[in-house]
What we know:
There is one protein chain. By secondary structure, the chain is an alpha+beta fold. Helices cover 22% and strands 30% of the residues. The protein has helices at 7-28, 134-139, 141-144, 255-284, and strands spanning 45-56, 75-79, 84-89, 102-111, 114-122, 148-161, 164-170, 175-180, 192-199, 203-211. A hairpin with a 4-residue loop joins strand 2 and strand 3 (84-89).
Amino acid sequence: MKSRVSHDEVVFVAVIVFLAAVVMPVLGAEITRISNIDDSYIGKAVTVSGVVVTISNNIPETGTIQTYDPGGISVLELDDGSGTLFVSSDPRLLDEVYEDMWVTATGLYAGDGIIYADMVGEDIAHLYIVDITVNALNEFPEYYYDDPVRIRGNVTRIEQTAGKTELVIDDHTGEMAVTYNADIADIMLGDAVLVEGKFYRNMIDATAVAVQRPEPEATPSPTPMPSAPPTLSVAPTLPHTPMPADAGGKGALPLYLIVIFIAAVVVAGVLIGIKVKERYIRKQE
């Protein structure tokens, strides 16, 4: 006897077919790294996954992109750690999208870093455990195995080969090896980084590595120092011995002139006395 198919069974099958037609292409689509997209992709369908940097109704740099609804929020800027591009989509697909959310978008690449997407949705694989410590990962490796995680720390080792970067990150609770399948420009030892990826017992397979350098601080204008009052230099005063003045108001003669004068008077007196004595003797003769 033939069995009948109920109405509920028909509806269930229809739902399964719909999910297979709509959801499976998104889940099964191969995600392309943004840095690999070039002009050879123009006119082709691509799937990208990245964190939402900005949400607007046009491209901020040019404002020339044709959106679905002028004035509607329909442009996302995505960053997957290797580069950025813009995704233009029907605003109705972006109702639940917000900045810092990780999304996957599929659509036609139009060149100039723009994708016109007909499918945009949250990337569940990137629902990261926020800022877990290396110590926690090392203590419970089986618990966090294959989980998406995020750590922050400083770079203590760097090894770069073509298209691959290996790091060791220290977050002050321990060190963790990180593998990232892309080059990281300008990264240096000691840099503070944010790492997102999947944890596998003793390492993280990163999907994003962001260097977090502090913004340079504005140099404050030097505060003028108050000028010190001028210091008057006073020369030491030597004691002054007043010279005795004569009746004419002039200074007295030096001592050696007085001695010479007295000596001259004595000599003259002696000579005069001798002459007078010689004359007296002659008169007596």
